[in-house]
Amino acid sequence: MCNIGMLSLGNTAENRIDIEEIKEKHTIIEITENLELLESFDAVIILEENISDLSRICELISKIRQRSTCYIWVMTVADQSVGKLVYLQLGADEVFDLSREAKEIAFIMENSMLRIKQLQVKKGSETENHHSDELLKLIPTNVSVMIEGNEEIVLTKLEFQMMELLLRHQGTAVIYETIYQELWKTETTENKQYRIANIIYHLRRKIEKNVKKPIFIKTVRSKGYMLNI
């Protein structure tokens, strides 16, 4: 599951372009032109409402490219986007208009997300193959974690899943919504952050020397958590 930011410049664009297949497989989070949490997204969808949005979208693409290497997709409610070549030149990866079939759009997006997943899996695999003197190593067969190559600590299933998720994104903040969907895969109105914080609390008690000054699991204020190794 990947994080995709949705930035709408109008009120009807999302209703006219079908991305339901993508919504079923990935986390879609609405964002504003302030580009909050940009570093946490694997892709950003910009919804163009009309031709007058061209200059705003050009500015947004430039800002995103300065801060992130994520995929940028522009969706327009017109049959053809007059700004398509400009958007691509500025760094957009694809521009979708109403002439593109929903299935085609879904395939293009999913193929892009698949490449991201493959890179994450490769990175995770390389991490597991580090030498025993590394700070932290997951041991799937034992549902445990090896600390500094000499202390193996048994984890619960949820604790292990949390560590596995943070490890795949090490050095990057993993937002609360992504963590919740990965661990529980349910929609609920209860306090998601509390459940996540509870898992983090027990993890820190097991792997950190000083819970009040954690070395491995860092809190990213108002966003989520990050693994620092």
From TrEMBL:
<feature type="domain" description="OmpR/PhoB-type">
    <location>
        <begin position="126"/>
        <end position="229"/>
    </location>
</feature>
<keyword id="KW-0804">Transcription</keyword>
<dbReference type="InterPro" id="IPR016032">
    <property type="entry name" value="Sig_transdc_resp-reg_C-effctor"/>
</dbReference>
<keyword id="KW-0597">Phosphoprotein</keyword>
<dbReference type="InterPro" id="IPR039420">
    <property type="entry name" value="WalR-like"/>
</dbReference>
<keyword id="KW-0902">Two-component regulatory system</keyword>
<keyword id="KW-0805">Transcription regulation</keyword>
<dbReference type="InterPro" id="IPR001867">
    <property type="entry name" value="OmpR/PhoB-type_DNA-bd"/>
</dbReference>
<dbReference type="Pfam" id="PF00486">
    <property type="entry name" value="Trans_reg_C"/>
</dbReference>
<keyword id="KW-0238">DNA-binding</keyword>
<dbReference type="InterPro" id="IPR036388">
    <property type="entry name" value="WH-like_DNA-bd_sf"/>
</dbReference>
<feature type="DNA-binding region" description="OmpR/PhoB-type">
    <location>
        <begin position="126"/>
        <end position="229"/>
    </location>
</feature>
<protein>
    <submittedName>
        <fullName>Transcriptional regulator</fullName>
    </submittedName>
</protein>
